[in-house]
TrEMBL record:
Protein name: Peptide/nickel transport system ATP-binding protein
Region (Disordered): 1-33
Lineage top rank: taxon: Bacteria
Pfam families reported in the protein's UniProt record: ABC_tran, oligo_HPY
């Protein structure tokens, strides 16, 4: 299912990359930061939305509540978690479509947290976003040529061979027929429309793309094709990605590092292998056990989390996951665990970390069912 791209796409992407290098004027070629230096550095990032409650009352939705993470050049970081945990809000802050309430965002060492419109202009070239819904994110009245050319025109960029040639080249890179330049979005399938969105994101040769659930609106068979395309582009163009998804199976195929979010916080972040094979946080373990084909969880069972995620208007004290955690005890309500370094990443210093089998364990307080499953 996750096979390689078609020959034409592979060739196109490789040609694009070499052409990009030849064509880029010297002034546009920025010095790549050293491998040790993050492209993106996020510290204490928070977004609290004020909302009306009751009669003249106001409260804060703590959608994102203090995130720390880095993304290195060419790296893919997956941001996963259940619906409502703050993934989209995070992604929109990273590309500055939303103003953060607190914290800092640095891109290549520059603080862009509160960058104004003028400062954002060059940044828009380096930082792009692909939206979840290919149906809603393309203007139905514009041809694909115009849609893909838009970022070039808005930024006043005249590619060496002209805009049309550039757009056709981008269409080819994403595996679409360059002859379809004058067609409208409704003439394309869902997967093809997402390819158009990807071509638009690539138009300015970004260094980092925030992909917000880029395949979740697509049929499963098409999802694989689009993820393979992104993977190929990531390798060939050395792009960094923040890949937002609730589907851990997709993230496993695409991301080198993974951050697991719960109620506006990261509970565990680390290399893919650590997260998928040696999860330490009970929530990570529960999410992983929901993947139907997971085979490398070690001993244990399937964990079915029940009950709703608590409201971000009034998150639980201490560990936010405690109201659904089968291991929770008194200390979890009073002491918030911190993220601590672990191998290539960080895990939350859970008071009762995952270390062995969970099947058959009893105790805990919350709405969780631990089922034995045969391996
Ligand atoms: N403009 C807003 N005003 C008030 N609350 C908001 C606003 N935008 C998002 N929220 C709330 O912030 C929380 C996080 O939302 P967000 O969309 O970031 O989550 P998510 O993890 O991306 O979810 P999904 O996977 O469903 O898109 C949710 O409780 C949501 O209702």
């Amino acid at each position: 299912m996750w096979g390689s791209l078609g020959e034409r796409e592979e060739r196109s992407a490789a040609e694009y990359r070499s052409r990009e290098r030849r064509q880029a004027p010297m002034s546009e070629v920025s010095v790549a930061p050293s491998a040790a230096e993050p492209l993106l550095r996020v510290r204490g990032l928070a977004k609290h939305f004020p909302v009306r409650t009751g009669f003249r009352g106001q409260s804060l939705v703590r959608a994102v509540d203090g995130l720390d993470f880095d993304v290195r050049p060419g790296e893919t970081l997956g941001l996963v978690g259940e619906s409502g945990c703050g993934k989209t809000t995070t992604g929109r802050m990273l590309v500055r479509l939303l103003e953060p309430t607190a914290g800092t965002i640095e891109f290549e060492g520059r603080d862009i947290t509160h960058a104004g419109r003028r400062q954002l202009r060059p940044l828009r070239q380096d930082l792009q976003i692909i939206f979840q819904d290919p149906y809603a994110s393309l203007n139905p009245r514009h041809t694909v040529g115009r849609i893909i050319a838009m970022p070039l025109q808005v930024n006043g960029i005249e590619p060496p061979g002209g805009v049309k040639a550039r757009v056709q080249e981008l269409l080819e890179i994403v595996g679409l027929n360059p002859e379809h330049y004058n067609r409208y979005p409704h003439e394309f399938s869902g997967g093809q429309r997402q390819r158009i969105g990807i071509a638009r994101a690539l138009a300015l040769r970004p260094k980092l793309i925030v992909a917000d659930e880029p395949v979740s609106a697509l049929d499963v068979s098409i999802q694989a094709q689009v993820v393979n395309l992104l993977r190929q582009l990531q390798r060939d163009l050395e792009l960094a990605f923040v890949f937002i998804a609730h589907d851990l199976a997709v993230v496993r195929h695409f991301c080198q590092r993974v951050a697991v979010m719960y109620l506006g916080k990261i509970v565990e972040i680390g290399d893919r292998v650590d997260i998928y094979e040696r999860p330490q946080h009970p929530y990570t373990r529960a999410l992983l056990s929901a993947i139907p084909d997971v085979t490398k969880l070690g001993p244990g069972g399937r964990i079915r989390l029940t009950g709703d995620v608590p409201t971000p208007l009034d998150p639980p004290s201490g560990c936010r996951f405690r109201t659904r955690c089968w291991k929770a005890q008194e200390i979890c309500a009073t002491e918030e665990p911190a993220l601590v370094s672990r191998g290539g990443g960080q895990a939350i210093a859970c008071h009762f970390p995952e270390s062995g089998p969970v099947a058959g364990e009893s105790g805990g307080t919350a709405g969780v069912t631990v089922e034995e499953v045969s391996k």
